[in-house]
Write a structure and sequence with these properties.
The chain is α/β, with parallel strands linked by helices. The protein contains 18 helices and 18 strands. The radius of gyration is 23 Å and the shape is globular. The relative contact order is 0.11. The mean pLDDT is 95.
Amino acid sequence: MSGLRVLFLSAEVAPFAKTGGLADVAGALPKALARLGHDVRVVTPAYRAQERAAEMGEGGLSAFPGGVMVPTGAGPLPAGILQGTLPESAVPVYFVAERRLFDRPNVYGYDDDPYRFAFFSRAALALTGSVGWQPDVVHAHDWHAAPAIAWLAAARAAVPTLFTIHNLAHQGRTSRAVLRYAGVDAPPLLEERGWDEVNFMARGIHHATLVNTVSPTYAREITTPEGGSGLDGLLRSRHLDLHGILNGLDDDVWNPATDRRLAARFDATSLERRAANKRALQERLGFEVSERTPLVAMVTRLDAQKGMEIAGEVVRRLASGAAGPAQFVVLGTGARPYEEMLASLAREHPRTMAAVLTFAGDLAPQIYGGSDLFLMPSLFEPCGLGQLIAMRYGSVPVVRATGGLADTVRDGHTGFTFLRYDAADFWMTLQRALLVHNTDESAWRRLRINGMSARFSWEDSARAYAQLYQWAVTRTRGLPG
């Protein structure tokens, strides 16, 4: 397969801006595609951190001369362009700079988000002419980049498109006026509430040449009424064009053999060195230092999707010793009721539970490298990154078998899984895991080694994406399959 020119649109790209797994994909997949010989150009908004870095001459960012004129329903509007590269690569990254829209404290959460990302999407398409480079494929991620696909479809542009769904629950529903702003003239979809609404997630699914999600199981789940968030009918109508590609794990970032954030580096052949990380973590959290006491962990966003509705009772039982001596740590921020619940439990059980309810980037790898078990009781999980990191760092995952968790954790081989979304099933499965930890040292070691040896390669994922690109090109050009 010859190299393709791929325009990659994402609202967040690690390490420049990150709120979730989308950023990890956008920061790692282009590098893997480039290693396969494809010419990938990434476009993302210039948020406050990038504006400040450019002003200070930091981060390798520079201004692209002349910027770009962005076509909108209100007429052409100027945007600056900052340029840089993805770390450890030569993959170009272009940042759309419009301070009124993007120079803000947070990436999302504003009333004008649909206009912000419609502007970003149109700017990304306009940028290709300014840099003298035309893509063979436009790859847009989640609803924030869907306006680009909607515009290409409305303009009848013969450009193949791939639309990747990272989280179907966030759909970009807004007033139809934003379509006029984006220059899109298209009738309403059945999934939109009449002429007054646009649903950008639905638009991306409807108009893209091909559609994919970030795990095979999630691709199946979203075609059901239970998992489809109101778009299951549309997704079933496109089932022949819907694919699931599992995310990889970036070895440049997550590798216990090279991670200097750990007290001791290790791999599957030197597991005995891992004990130093558990001791360091217990000391940092104020726990009793004990190799035999199981240390259970969560690193998560605190919201309903991540299973917080069933986690509270399980954490309470664990911290109170209902399954025997155990320690528990949670790192994360999110909805205030969940933060208050965990803070209250930690106050009740200060010797066995720690709740770190703030951003602590240096603590996360220490938790992965020092904990014995890692919990992900998700209501739904398109792919999940935590379980991949946990396995790579020797922490055995206990997960609900949904989405990417079902695709990556093998019960009894690399971790423990439960099916029903309820606290009783979760608690029984955690007890099963603790029993193995406490009574069968050789079985526990095998679980750890199996997890650390599991392959979640971005190169494998990149080859699958490259195949989708080729199929999209073939279909758009009307060539024989």
